């Protein structure tokens, strides 16, 4: 008897709260209390928004989230922690998950609360749902399918090809992936589409 299909919730589709985003936009500057709003959208349609307040003046810095989920108001704090950067330049901010007490840089909202990924049972990343055959095809032909993505990254506005006269590692990796995709015969891809 065949196994019933399970359709797990995907982290790729969940709303994400990222410490790097908050830091980049100045919400985690030391000794400040700041308010802001984050809005998510997909294909031009708004999928969610939250208001928040960061407090780095407090002895235990925190971010307080205020939003509605399915018409129900939610308001809670997530404590923050810092770790000295391995480069010796400043600190790296982390969330302390209110459910698992783990330090993390990204919190996901699956069941209405922003938590560490290990707080959710049965959730997966999209790549984990691919079949073994699809993963094998991805290893062989993945460079061909990702070719447009590689070119758009290569020619994006702030992409850095060289640093101090030497090509960057990211630039060399992209060139290698593009070269790999150019070696794949398009007739093989057409044959795959027919199967």
Q: What overall geometry do the principal axes of the alpha carbons give?
A: globular
**Beta-strand fraction estimate:** 25-35%
First and last CA, distance: 26 Å
Helix percentage: 25-40%
Count the E strands: 11
Unreliable stretches (pLDDT < 50, length at least 5) are none
Question: Helical element count?
Answer: 5
Secondary structural class? alpha+beta
Structure description:
By secondary structure, the protein is an alpha+beta fold. It folds into two domains: 11-119, no CATH class; 130-194, no CATH class. Helices cover 26% and strands 33% of the residues. It is built from five helices and eleven strands; from the N terminus they run βαββββββββααββαα. The chain has helices at 19-24, 132-145, 147-154, 169-182, 186-194, and strands at 15-18, 33-42, 45-55, 62-69, 72-84, 91-96, 103-104, 106-109, 114-115, 162-163, 166-167. The strands form three sheets. A six-stranded antiparallel sheet has the order 2-3-4-5-6-7. It has a three-stranded antiparallel sheet with strand order 1-8-9. β2 (33-42) and β3 (45-55) form a beta hairpin. α2 crosses α4 (169-182) and α3 (147-154) runs antiparallel to α4. The protein starts with 14 loop residues before the first strand and ends with a helix. The mean pLDDT is 85.
């Amino acid at each position: 008897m065949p196994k019933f299909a399970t359709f797990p919730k995907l982290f790729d589709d969940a709303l994400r709260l990222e410490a790097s985003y908050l830091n980049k936009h100045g919400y985690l500057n030391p000794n400040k209390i700041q308010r802001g709003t984050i809005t998510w959208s997909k294909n031009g349609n708004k999928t969610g928004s939250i208001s928040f307040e960061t407090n780095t003046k407090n002895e235990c810095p925190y971010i307080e989230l205020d939003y509605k989920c399915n018409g129900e108001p939610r308001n809670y704090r997530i404590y923050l922690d810092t770790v000295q950067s391995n480069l010796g330049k400043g600190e790296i901010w982390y969330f302390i998950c209110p459910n698992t007490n783990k330090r993390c840089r990204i919190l996901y909202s699956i069941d209405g609360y922003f938590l560490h990924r290990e707080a959710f049972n049965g959730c997966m990343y999209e790549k984990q749902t691919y079949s073994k055959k699809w993963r094998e095809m991805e290893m062989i032909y993945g460079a061909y399918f990702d070719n447009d993505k590689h070119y758009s990254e290569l020619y994006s506005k702030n992409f850095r090809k060289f640093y101090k006269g030497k090509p960057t590692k990211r630039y060399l990796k992209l060139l290698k992936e593009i070269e790999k995709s150019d070696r794949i015969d398009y007739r093989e891809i057409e044959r795959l589409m027919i199967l």
